[in-house]
């Protein structure tokens, strides 16, 4: 092995070990997830397509690598979608980033109560829950549950 290859291998090993030390650190805090916006793309009688805008806040001193997100969304306590999104994105240290996740659902059986809730012009409660899988070499699964309100008309959350 030539000296340059050895140096590169040593550098890689040291950076990996540095990453290991940060996982065991007591000052690591869980990232926060929040549903920011629901954007309607297309709606037919049997299938609706939305884009969920999910914001991830990284309160840590190191970059957060996100592999995938298993999630469910309930509007007004009605199950709207349960899905998995493969993201492969990152959020810089002490930063936030919004991801767009395309979902398809069939709300036909829940149409009446959902339309009633949206037409009421009052905020509609939502729950976003699931599991966020992070890391590149060492994986961590974070369970989350968030709630808030969607304001009818513009589908923005409060």
UniProtKB/TrEMBL annotation:
Biological process GO terms, please?
A: response to desiccation
Q: Where is the Water stress and hypersensitive response domain?
A: 33-151
The answer to keyword Lyase applying to this record is: no
What protein name does the entry list? Answer: Lipoprotein
Tell me the leader sequence span.
1-21
InterPro entries, per database record: LEA_2, WHy-dom
Print the keywords alphabetically: Lipoprotein, Signal
**Membrane-spanning ranges:** none
Q: Organism source for this protein?
A: Pseudomonas cremoricolorata
Q: Does the keyword Kinase apply?
A: no
